[in-house]
Amino acid sequence: MTDTAKPDRDEAQRLRYYSASQWTLIWWRFRRHRAAMVAATILGIMALMGVFAEVVAPYGPTSRNASYLDGPPQLPMFCDRQGCSIRPFVHGIKTERDPITLRAISVPDPETRVYVSFLARGEQVRLFGVIPTDIHLFGLDHDKARLHLWGTDDLGRDVFSRTIYATRTSLSIGVMGVLISFVLALIIGGTAGYAGGRVDGGIQRVTEVVRVVPIIPLYMGLAAAMPPEWSTTQVYFAMTLILGLFGWPTLARRIRSQLLSIRNEDYVVAARLAGARPSRIIGQHMLPSFTSFIIVDLVISFPYMILSETALSFVGLGLRPPSVSWGVMLQQAQSVRVIEQTPWLFIPAGFVVVAVLAFTVIGDGLRDAADPYSEAR
Amino acid sequence: MGDLLTVENLTISFRTDEGLITPVQDVSFSVQKGRTLGLVGESGSGKSVSTKAVMRLLPGSAVIAPDTRMHYTAKDGQRVEVEKLDPRSRAIRRLRGGEIGMIFQEPMASFSPVYTIGNQMIEAIRLHREPNKRQAREIAIAMLERVGLSDPATRIDQYPHEMSGGMRQRAMIALALSAGPALLIADEPTTALDVTIQAQVLDLMRELQRDLGMGMIFITHDLGVIAQIAQDVAVMYLGTIVERGPTAEVIRDPKHPYTQGLLAAIPSLDRLNARMTPVPGDIPSPTERPTGCPFHTRCVHAIAGLCSARTPREIAPEPGRAVRCWLHDEAGRSAA
Amino acid sequence: MLRFTAERFVGMIVTMLLVSLMVFIIMELPPGDYADRYAFRKYSGTGVSVTEADIQAIRVELGLDKPMLLRYFDWIGNIVLHGDFGQAFAFETSVTKVIGDKALLTTAILFGTLIITYLVSIPIGIYAAVKRASFADYGLTTFSYLGLALPNFLLALILLYFANRWFNADIGGLFSAEMKDAPWSLAKAGDLIAHLWLPAIVLAWSAVAYQLQTVRATMSDELNKLSVTAARARGVPETKLLIKYPARLAINPVVSTIGFDVNRIFSELPIVAVVLGLTELGELLLRAYLDLDMYVAGAILLLLTFMIVFMNFISDILLAWLDPRIKLGG
Known about the structure:
The complex is a heterotrimer. By secondary structure, chain A is of the alpha+beta class. Chain A is built from 15 helices and four strands. By secondary structure, chain C is mostly helical. Chain C has a domain at 100-289: MetI-like (MetI-like fold). In chain C, 78% of the residues lie in helices and 1% in strands. Chain C has a two-stranded antiparallel ribbon with strand order 1-2. The longest helix of chain C is centred in the middle third of the chain and has 38 residues, at 186-223. Chain B: One of its GO terms (cellular component) is plasma membrane.
């Protein structure tokens, strides 16, 4: 007999808690991590933009606007000297001569208005490369005028559209790289951890060697070996392979040490005595006990992939134009002069920072959520 | 007989995410010079927290209630009001180590692994007794010999991991005593040891306490150990002292149902065939402290409607003894 | 201790051998062989038409017709026995000459970066752990998140930009224009140090962010250890207590990851070098890769990695000296 005066509702909740599965628990704890939820939302939006790049971007990644080179961002507005309107608009562009250099430059013409419309018709594109459509998320009413939300580069290409396409490339390279290194880590770490002994010793040596070589110079060496005549698609897949090929050591070590520590648990020995194949023992009995840790490690390894790709493309050893990734775009922003004259070319760098931050914060949130002892707090 | 340490109405609360929890409530006890007070209770009953409060070693989230009084009489006869000291002050540092020594349950964890035993002993001696380095070393060696370590001149330069568990516990005792405290607080010093070594360490502590004339607070969850070492005993349950008095009398005639339960749970030779009868149920968590008498949820004699509603006061059933239980407080019961 | 050192030393040599094999494989990766590229470089623009026989002659001359394993032993043998790293095609001189004192500059940058990293991360990490959950703590955590997310070349550009605006100075490069080709002197060394701080800060940035988190985490753990409470219960004054007990142990993980930091710094070096116009190994490595001058690239990759392996060795020895528990384990 206790006099706990707690209402039944609490009791029901407690029952739900005790009977929840491991994954449900992790999800509940993760949901409480506000920063991680915000990061996950931002990343989700980025991923969606990348997936539907053809529709979100008003123009193609290589489509040029010869009358607006190195043009500054155009911000849609509602009011100007002529009054206000309900629909957002931008001013038209006119060409003038620079009074000093006498170069032709493009300046906004406050006399003309071009209205922004949503779900506008524009360039003919193929969504996912298959579905033909000419609907874009937004565009300008006027056929000839173009809306450059984030300005243009020296060839008159729309920075906003290119950034959207770059998001697709950079994130997908990250995903592919992580997946490849995950498979490699699973095979290498799994073998070492399951076999133990001399096999483990040998694999540890190799892992040590791979870990000790500085990673970006190593990637560079492999990227430099890509034949110049390769197509952009070939280069793209080679890049994912390169990133994946040397991204595995950290994860492999984690898998190995976890496997080693549970190798002699009773349930593993029982499975072995029952004659199960090694791959089945690892996959069915051993891995599930630390899947959550693997997921955390996978999420945390994304930033390295993204930063590596950006760095390699930045110095011209990664993806090559006409491919467009964050790193490729930043190739145009290698000098201080760019900060002074065309700072909007740095917008892709903001994407890199936000994506890396988001992955790191989500990783931290997941780690807290996956740790059963964090509940004690 | 002078009181070395008097604690009155000690109440400690912690600020946590779930709100304020109070693991120690209204605890009073005293230790005399040259005598040992045994503090008994299950884990989580607030024994360690209470003694840490005396040393002002509680973390920043702990609050000591304003009506708490903790008076300590120093070696020079000065009275120190411990509850008024700033936990970072010089005065409390003089108390720590120099006046009150402390021994912990895990000797391995209470030494820093990267310094030798001697380094840590000499540091304490130089802080409180003897600033000269060479003489401090002499004192340390003598103290190691005193606790029964063979070859103390070599041992002093060893690291904690180079010693066995029993040796480490002896070294820990030497470390606590090296600064010459008048009161020793021993927090479960024998729990982590093998039974045979446990007996040796108990003998050693009893001997040291007698020879050095120290007062001692001996914390344990084992009433059997108390019988061997303590003249006085205080039984704690969920942060309050439910019964206290001279050990011999409390064991012969326990008044509180909890003390009776603890005694019945000690294996004994004359009751080999009888089943041991542990106290039924589990100790509630400090966040779910029962109202009224904290023990009523597990008490077989609980009086319906009274014990669950009102907290019993401390009364003296006999001179020199005290108990908190409605069963023994007829006057209070009829007043209720 | 002697045995421990010897063991680690042998381990270091074995790792270096394996690394050299891997580097050699990377050198062999680019399509076509050296003879083609060599011939192309040598005769391009001269109007001489190169025949297959000419290339074959070059191939024999350079020893490229031998099997790969044999060429590996030739290569590594020449490095170990004669300090000869082979020919730099693009520069038409030996690799050793091309690398020359760039290795020295790289070492200067490395140690400048390491010093900044530890001077900043250790005290601040300890401070953050002691003031846990305070405003300063959250601020530092946020900073270290940013430190890990901001690509270093971007940071380099930002710093360059502000240096240009505020000091109106061109602080790129490692030397001022008049010192660049001067022989080594005290003045030149001073000039180097005056230019070193910018690349050192850029390279230290992410290392600081990383170590800050490590120090803070270990220090928080150590602060809660019983040994700290026990020392406090002996009356050790608070500041001395923090330094002698938890802080002393919080340094161990930093020491054990020195090699990791060197790795991270060298990894970022080529990119930062491009932006800051540094004339050291990282920049040369990138140029060699772009030119497919693989003997130069291989030599640099090997040197950088050897330096990392050597620093790993140093960190092992240091750690054993710092933590008496390690020696016994062997």
